[in-house]
Amino acid sequence: MSSPRLQQLISAIGQVLLGKEQAVRLALACLLARGHLLIEDLPGMGKTTLAEALARAFGLEFKRVSFTSDLLPADLTGINVFDAGSARFHFQPGPLFSQVLLADEINRASPRTQSALLEAMAAGRVSVDGVSHPLPEPFLVIATQNGLDQVGTAPLPESQLDRFLMRLSLGYPDRRAELDLLSGKALPPASLEPLLDGAGLLELQRRAAAQHCSSALLDYVLDLAAFSRRADQAGTGLSPRACQGLVAAARAWSLLEGRDHVTPADVQAVLPAVAEHRLAGSAATLLAGVDGLR
Amino acid sequence: MSGSARWLQILGLGALAAGLAGLDFSAPLSWLSAGLLVLAGLKLAEARSLPERRLVSLLTLIGGGVQGAQQGELLPSLLQLLATALGLAGLLALEVGSGLSWRAVLRRSLAVLLAALPVALVLFLLVPRIEPIWQTPNLRGAGATAVTGLNSELDPGSISSLADNTGPAARVSFSSGTLPEPAERYWRVIVHEQFDGQRWKQRELPSNRLVTSTGTASDPESKASSQVWLVEPSPVNAMPWDGSGRANPNQLRVNRNGELQPLQASRERQAYLVRATGSPQPWQQRQPSPADLELPAGSNPQLEALGASWRDLATPEQRLAAAKQWFTQQDFRYSRTPGTQRGLDVFLFERREGFCGHYASAFTALMRAAGVPARVVSGYLGGTWVRPLSGAPYLDLRHSNAHAWSEVWLPGQGWQRIDPSAWATAPASQAEGSEAGGSTNPIGSWLQWLQWQWWGLDLAWSRWWLGFDQAGQEALLQRLFGDQRQWLGAVVLGAVAGLLALALAWLQWLQQPASRDQISRELQAVVKHLRRAGVEVEPGESFEQLCNRASRLLPASASNLQELARCHNLLRYAALGKQERLQQWAAWRTALRTINKATKSTL
């Protein structure tokens, strides 16, 4: 199967978030594919726990911001502060300048603040007062949000959603896992020892991007995209960025599976997480609509 | 617009330029070819936009066509084919952009050519040839350095030794595919009529004295035997033949002495077809002229005296017999190195040693002295019988096969061939002349072998296209249409339209399997078997999922189904080396066979 280090990561996070191995693997694949991750579920399902566990296990420097309705963009990006000693302004970086930004309850912030994240997520840099400041490498956003029917939330605009490679739902744990949780077998996220560092993650990301992707597989992805864009399908189709993300995620998934090449199974495994927040329909409709016998 | 298009066009022009090297620039069409090439080259250099680049390819194609109208021989034809394929490939590369590799483009252009082949064949067979366009081809020249063992002037006395020039002189293949009898392997080229006491000269016959070889045109219906000749460049204005038959009158005519002469003197390689005719040849029956008895008095007194002594014999046949008897009684030896001998008397009465030229000229002079019209003929004798791997067997004539003999006029029989060299002792290899190129050098013999193979192909090709000349086409049209010739145009148009439609359909069909690769064809076989076993494919299911599901339903085949899924994934999605790919294919086949057996037994 996959490399021992990846196995260690999965099992370490699994000790914190019980009974959610599939979600943990997808989250790993998302980060290995250099994608930003959105975890969406009801309160109390372990969203923040997963986010924090990921950040800690990767050994990355992370900052956590709880988004509220009065959070301003400058609270994220930082501001130019007047230094009386040198009689100059100098830039005071905000919490965005870290390797991992844990954006808790992202949909509670105002749209203005949400869009401040746009440039950071897409381009890896932040512009303050006309000066562009590069963000560190790697830079990942792990955001959590509540279901939209919760009180006091503003839905993320589609442009913002499209910048998240994956959206995960955790769902209720099974009975056995919940029993373990109640018995106190789950470790707190703070207890996780870092298993990787920034350089290690970059190396894994490089390996994921180098996974062999045959033209037959790309054909499959293109067929899926073409089907999603058909007139008889609800909503908009998959964007080219979504297709890029799908391939990148499938590559990372195949790395987790311990293979050196991508197969349709990898695409099918990551498709719900990659596609559903961009589509009106479900990934299952998409998969059933395309001849998958390949 | 890919860079490969440019390279393909450059290569196409290169092939065209190579074809240009063989053209005869006395023909106006050659200048057109050269002009097209220059034009295409300049256009290529300055072309920036797509239409301009298209023009380069179109010029290449037209250039190939113009060359094709001039040269039909094998090598030029191959070069034209190459230029056309490359030109087409360049055009394709321009149109489809960088989407295809140059190899794929080349393959597709060959497919286009293949599809056009039936149309070309119909046009070749059925469209009547118009004289000025369908010129009798003057083939490519191998340069002006013509070497030959033959000369229009024969002066054996001045030659001290014969050089062994084993350079190629000519090739001939026979429609029967069999070698003629040794006695029939005399290939006449030049008739030497004029004798000045020492030298024999070919008489320059004025061009109006050329006679077309009579009206006994070979019956096109009959499968008359024919010979295809390929003759290397030679300064001699006559071509070898066996003295009977008929060549294309637009290319070669037989003059009154029985020499096969080209209409236009050319220092190029010649290809021609001689069809056998049953009738006696007019040149053979032509009455001798006074020139055939000319003998400068006093130049060889002993010879004249000997010849005159036979004048008393009643018939030419008897004089001939007397001469033969005289030659065989004396101690004549055949030698390729006889040393210079001034005058025939020296040869006949002192040295008695010489090669074919000595014998032929001495015997002819003796006959003239005896009052029998006679002349010297030079040409080739024998040759090497080559059986190439491909193509028909043929006779390879070298310059060392050059020979000289005599012809005497016998009343009632016409001109008869007499070879006095045969009367000398030790006729040596020259008389048989069967083994040429006995090279001990292994590389030399290899080259020799390769050359023989190439010539075999060359001759087969020449036989094919030379054989279908105007007469052949006329015969075919007559057979197909009879007197209903007015339908010819409609039939040609219909055939071309139909074949073009077929070709387009075929090309369309060719393009399809791009997505249908081998493995997906094989998948269908597996799906069929599973369906028979009751497992249907669900929508959107991948092959791996199908196999997993099927292996739960058919536990007996589970391991093989898993194996199939594994091989399929590797073959289709992994980057495998050639060796690994073969291994996976083998594993796939094994698993598939086992499953087939299993499903058959369960049914």
Topology:
The complex is a heterodimer of chains A (294) and B (603).
Chain A: H1 4-16, H2 21-32, E1 36-40, H3 47-57, E2 62-66, H4 73-77, E3 78-83, E4 88-93, E5 100-104, H5 111-123, E6 125-128, E7 131-134, E8 140-145, H6 158-162, E9 164-168, H7 175-182, H8 198-209, H9 215-228, H10 240-256, H11 264-275, H12 283-289
Parallel strand pairs in A: 1-8, 1-9, 2-5, 5-8
Antiparallel strand pairs in A: 3-4, 6-7
Helix pairs in contact in A: 1-2, 1-3, 2-10, 8-10, 9-10, 10-11
Chain B: H1 3-20, H2 28-46, H3 50-70, H4 74-96, H5 102-126, E1 153-154, E2 168-174, E3 186-195, E4 200-202, E5 226-231, E6 246-247, E7 252-254, E8 260-262, E9 270-275, H6 282-285, H7 301-309, H8 316-329, E10 333-334, H9 344-351, E11 353-354, H10 356-369, E12 374-381, E13 384-386, E14 394-398, E15 402-410, E16 414-418, H11 428-432, H12 442-467, H13 470-481, H14 488-511, H15 518-532, H16 543-553, H17 558-573, H18 578-602
Parallel strand pairs in B: 10-11
Antiparallel strand pairs in B: 1-4, 2-5, 2-14, 3-4, 3-12, 5-9, 6-9, 7-8, 12-15, 13-14, 15-16
Helix pairs in contact in B: 1-2, 1-3, 1-4, 2-3, 3-4, 4-5, 5-14, 7-10, 15-18, 16-17, 17-18
